[in-house]
Amino acid sequence: MSFVPLQPPDLPPIRARGTPRCRGCGLPREMCLCGALPRLPVRTRVVLLTHRIERTRSTNTGRLVARLLDGAEVRVRGEIGPQPRPPLPEGRRLVLFPSPAARTLSPDDARGEPAVLLVPDGNWNQARRACHRDPDAQGAEPVTLPAGAPSRYGLRRAPHQGALSTLEAVARALGLLEGADIERRMMEAFDVWVHRATRVRLTGKLEDGAPAREQGGQEARLQRA
User: Can you spell out the DSSP letters for 134-180?
Assistant: First the structure.
């Protein structure tokens, strides 16, 4: 099993008050989860279309997607001035967003060559605009997820019932395209991250008395195959 590096140099500082944050996971550095995150092999090429403001938010979940999935890529949008990008990977392009024109994603979409799954990453309006304006999304087939369980993400107010965080949406999409194990592994990491972020927001630390012991147990579970 391989692991991602702790502090990639190309990520911007996290915008948060108080203690310095890890640029990889957005948590306070002493609670950093990056070293425990597994690197998950997938056929689907996941490309995040991340708004520039979203990159610096500590509650962003797209950065966890990039750290968990082999081959995942973050493309920043909303920068001032031209921002040249390399060509997208080869494959049928799907853009994941519940637009009126979107059809429901299904396991049949995994047949043939690997799909390129474009995922707008930002607030609701930023994501909607990315589908219409981002050059990488032009000509991509819009897809949405089938109805499922409610979101387990409580760090932001949902724009509407049924809304999911970026990581949850990607995990469910890959559950359809790659199998239930990938979805499970992603959601295990997500649940640990949400737990830590919630405790930090409420108390400034994990738990009174034994944060190191709790962190160690969580990380050991994530590293199991």
Answer: -GGGTTPEEEEPPP-SPP---SS--SSTT---HHHHHHHHHHHHT-H
What's the full length of the chain, in residues?
225
Beta-bridge partner residues of 69:
40
Sheet holding 141-144, edge to edge: 73-77, 45-51, 116-121, 93-96, 141-144, 103-104
pLDDT tens digits for 21-49? 898 898 988 889 999 999 999 999 999 99
Task: Retrieve residue 100's tokens.
Answer: 């009126």
Q: How open is the CA angle 196-25-55, to the nearest 5 degrees?
A: 125
What are the structural domain ranges in the chain? Answer: 29-147+172-223
pLDDT score at 6: 33
Taking residue 69's Cβ as centre, other Cβ atoms within 10 Å add up to 23
Cα separation, 119 vs 114, whole angstroms: 15
